[in-house]
Amino acid sequence: MSLDEAAMKPHDRLSAHLAGDMESVNALIRERMASEHAPRIPEVTAHLVEAGGKRLRPLLTLAAARLCGYGGPYHVHLAATVEFIHTATLLHDDVVDESKQRRGRPTANLLWDNKSSVLVGDYLFSRSFQLMVETGSLRVLDILANASATIAEGEVLQLTAAQDLATDEGVYLKVVRGKTAALFSAATEVGGVIAEAPEDQVRALYTYGDALGIAFQIVDDLLDYGGATETIGKNVGDDFRERKLTLPVIKAVAQASEEERAFWRRVIEKGDQREGDLEQAMALMARHGAMEAARADALGWAARAKAALAALPDHPLRAMLSDLADFVVARVS
Amino acid sequence: MSLDEAAMKPHDRLSAHLAGDMESVNALIRERMASEHAPRIPEVTAHLVEAGGKRLRPLLTLAAARLCGYGGPYHVHLAATVEFIHTATLLHDDVVDESKQRRGRPTANLLWDNKSSVLVGDYLFSRSFQLMVETGSLRVLDILANASATIAEGEVLQLTAAQDLATDEGVYLKVVRGKTAALFSAATEVGGVIAEAPEDQVRALYTYGDALGIAFQIVDDLLDYGGATETIGKNVGDDFRERKLTLPVIKAVAQASEEERAFWRRVIEKGDQREGDLEQAMALMARHGAMEAARADALGWAARAKAALAALPDHPLRAMLSDLADFVVARVS
């Protein structure tokens, strides 16, 4: 690794190392998001796909496949599959959350309408489905079908768990797996499967993706109560205003006094939020060390992700994946 | 066939003939719509799945497989798959169309909310995907992936074509294939594929489903301008109020005088609809024989569906499928 490379973020190093593959992925994405008859589809998709997203999930698939010595063409299909599923999920999420901004830009549901977001999301799901069928691997299809079901179930669970103070860390983990970790772990696992890697390596890739995804989401939850708008593209307190039971809140609620519980019931369950409530919520989380404890959990998951990599071949990509796990939690360390 | 059976509608005869298989399908549907963690999912799904729908699509799959001599278990999986895809599509459609009634009952988006309809629809798509992977047939997966893409593309196309007088019969056919025929043809085709029927029979099953679906949709369009609410579960003129370019309207617009075009532009493109406009639209369609011409098209598609059946084995199910094609168009004959 050159000195220049060493100074780059792990994500950028992955991008540089996999630049050729990533170009093929981008070409495939552009080709498959086209629709001869319904120009609304590429319009809406381009808005999201070309919004400068980090392409983290397709990079994970490419890295996993290459790390396991894959030399065929289908890791590109799988990387595009994973990005399409992710984009489709974002489109539907923004409808469900009534979001107005994503990655610092207006959301598709705001620029077009909810109808377009729902239907173009469905279209991208079906396109991702076609791409994975092209790999001819039933095992890959099985993994992605199960990931899709976990994602959808997690989203519905989040819908009902939001606003419910009875949500505990077990439910939280299920929601997070659906929201983030299921696609991360499917992304890494299918990379190993398409490379026909030994079973212990495939399992290790699954574990890495799962733990990385959970760490990633906990960090996201933490930043919502402390990150600056420009770094995360959303406003501090968005989760609070949407009455989401994120990890720091769950930890604070678990230790709340009777008076504090009354506060949480009012702002989260009843949704009766007033001036100063966000600050009060943050003070309660600080009082019970909820932010600290959530941070420790994130570090634990990152450590688990790194430990899983030991089963994989020694390779520059393995080092980058390890650094990536550190980097994800460095935002809150 | 007994006299009693002869008096039954073809759809009921199919149900009776395939009752054992259909029981297995219903059991599988109930099993797979369950969700341990998100009770909202079976609630919403049961509302639709148990609303007394005709189960026409799963019956087509079962009939196609049995007609081709299938003796294995996977036609049941495929029939459940097709019903899940259909139900998911209905959930998303009702959000997109802002519908308040479906099969004479309030829609899920009205009883719960749009969020639940979007996410439970996604969940059912992913469950259908798991079911089809279980068949282990890549060809079946390919057919259903392509059908999903056609469905989604057709829905987006309908969204943009809906208020555009330039929509011609070619675009209409693409919308109808997406809306109805793609799932009908996939339903029959996968039945033949799972039975490992010869290629000409698989093609015939595809053609039958495609033509039946198109006939079905044209009849639906016609009934919207003339059926009674109690038979179709929606109100006369719903399509008109939603400014949909259905076949009779397209035919009337194609023959419109300048003055008539101004009327269509106002009511369909601008959406400026007043008292008496529905009656005026129906008078214009009558003047140009648009209803008659659309009816003739529907009869033509039904005839094509029946003709395709000639390639299939002589079997009581084949006769029922033939009668079904007649029955679909009998509603407007």
Automatic annotation (TrEMBL), chains A, B:
UniProt key word Electron transport: no
Keywords attached to this entry: Magnesium, Metal-binding, Transferase
Domain of life, source organism: Bacteria
Keyword Cell inner membrane on entry: no
Cofactor: Mg(2+)
Entry-linked InterPro entries: Isoprenoid_synthase_dom_sf (IPR008949), Polyprenyl_synt (IPR000092), Polyprenyl_synt_CS (IPR033749)
Pfam family, one: polyprenyl_synt
Entries under PANTHER family matching the protein: ALL TRANS-POLYPRENYL-DIPHOSPHATE SYNTHASE PDSS1, GERANYLGERANYL PYROPHOSPHATE SYNTHASE
Family: Belongs to the FPP/GGPP synthase family.
Protein name: Polyprenyl synthetase family protein
Native organism: Albidovulum sediminicola
